[in-house]
Design brief:
two-stranded antiparallel ribbon; 4 strands; 49% helix; 7% strand; flat
Length: 109
């Protein structure tokens, strides 16, 4: 039973890493194509806020160059309204949001 769980956990981590890699590649490709003018976007076609009614619970104050966050488009000054299952509607205070985000990250490793 424990061996099976360990194998499933390892498979889950591998699949998540593969998904993250594919998403990073996709976002980089789209960004390059936008810069080269191959893709045209109009502001009304892009939903910029995943939860339009949500209130931000965090403000980004640092993003390391060449980090996954940087390549995904996260920038200093961005307001975080959702992270995985964490959003302002399911946390009592903004400080609890950051604690919950750390839990989500820890559980996904």
């Amino acid at each position: 039973q424990r061996n099976r769980l360990a194998c499933l956990y390892t498979d889950h981590k591998r699949i998540l890493a593969e998904i993250e890699s594919c998403l990073l590649t996709l976002h980089q490709r789209v960004r390059v194509e936008k810069e080269e003018g191959k893709i045209e976007t109009k502001d009304h076609e892009i939903q910029k806020d995943p939860l339009p009614t949500s209130v931000p619970f965090a403000l980004v104050d640092e993003v390391f160059p060449d980090s996954p966050a940087f390549h995904a488009g996260l920038r200093v000054g961005d307001r975080i309204t959702a992270f995985g299952t964490v959003h302002s509607d399911n946390i009592p205070t903004p400080q609890n949001g950051l604690i919950r985000v750390s839990e989500v990250v820890k559980n996904s490793e």
